[in-house]
């Protein structure tokens, strides 16, 4: 019985962490998408795609946008700043 207590405790901790991460993942993504879309559209741009979370370590999130018919890939982290920084490749003409 005493051997099972640490195992049960570890399983409970992992479940709580998993639920917390899932909740953050499901709640935060729509908020980020809405905020980024509003910032891009306020500058007469269009959001085509948002890559929220990095799939590999050190891979930044990015947003594919269109300004004046030119498609660019912009930094998600920099677009989330206030005021947003449009660091894109290729560079975009933001009004």
Explain the overall architecture.
The mean pLDDT is 80. This protein has one domain. With 95 residues, the protein is an alpha+beta fold. The protein has a 4-stranded antiparallel sheet. A hairpin with a 2-residue loop joins β2 (62-67) and β3 (70-75). The chain has helices at 4-41, 76-79; strands at residues 46-51, 62-67, 70-75, 88-89. The protein contains 2 helices and 4 strands.
Identify the notable features of this structure and list them briefly.
single chain, 95 residues, alpha+beta, four-stranded antiparallel beta sheet, 44% helix, elongated
Characterize the biggest β-sheet.
4 strands, antiparallel
Number of strands: 4
The Cα radius of gyration reads 19 Å
Number of domains: 1
Mean pLDDT comes to 80
Q: Layout of helices and strands, plus pairs?
A:
Blueprint: H1 4-41, E1 46-51, E2 62-67, E3 70-75, H2 76-79, E4 88-89
Antiparallel strand pairs: 1-2, 2-3, 3-4
Short description:
With 95 residues, the chain is an alpha+beta fold. It is 44% helix and 21% strand. The radius of gyration is 19 Å and the shape is elongated.
């Amino acid at each position: 019985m005493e051997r099972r207590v640490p195992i049960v405790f570890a399983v409970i901790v992992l479940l709580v962490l998993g639920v917390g991460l899932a909740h953050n993942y499901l709640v935060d993504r729509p908020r980020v998408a809405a905020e980024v879309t509003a910032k891009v559209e306020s500058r007469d741009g269009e959001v085509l795609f948002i890559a929220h979370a990095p799939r590999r370590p050190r891979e930044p999130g990015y947003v594919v946008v269109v300004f004046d018919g030119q498609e660019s890939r912009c930094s998600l982290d920099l677009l989330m700043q206030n005021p947003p920084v449009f660091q894109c490749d290729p560079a975009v003409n933001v009004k």
